[in-house]
Structures are given as C-alpha cells and as structure tokens.
Amino acid sequence: xxxxxxxxxxxxxxxxxxxxxxxxxxxxxxxxxxxxxxxxxxxxxxxxxxxxxxxxxxxxxxxxxxxxxxxxxxxxxxxxxxxxxxxxxxxxxxxxx
Length: 97
What we know:
Elements: H1 3-96
C-alpha cells in the first residue's frame, strides 16, 4: 500500500467518523432537547394543577364566608324580632294590669 492509498483510506475513515460523530451528537442533542421540553411541560402542568387547586380552595373559603354572613344576619334578625315581640308582649301585659 503506498502513501496515496493510505491517505485515501484515512480520508474515508475520517469522513465516516465525522458522519457517525455528527449523527450521534445530533441524536444526543435531540434526546436532551426532548427531555428538557418534556420536563418543562410536566412542570407547567403541575403548576397549573396547583394553581387550580388553590383557586378552588379560595373559592370554597369565600363561599363559606358568604354563608356564615347570611347565617349571622339571620340570627341577628331573629334576635331583633324576638326582642320586639317580647317588648310588645310586656307592654300589652302592663296596660291590662
């Protein structure tokens, strides 16, 4: 084998190594990018789920607070009505005696 053939085979081997290296590097880059994108999507989905849970919990707290206000107002109105009734009943008794 002379120097020309050796250089030719070295060039072929170098070219094949470059192609294989580029393909392996491209595949590794694609795999890493896909893994990163998947992780970003999972993180976004988890964040949205967490935010939805927090919003729902806040809505439940607001609804409970509204219901408590209604019950307290009804109790206040009831006590006022009872006091007025008691005043009228006592006033009716004292005018008869």
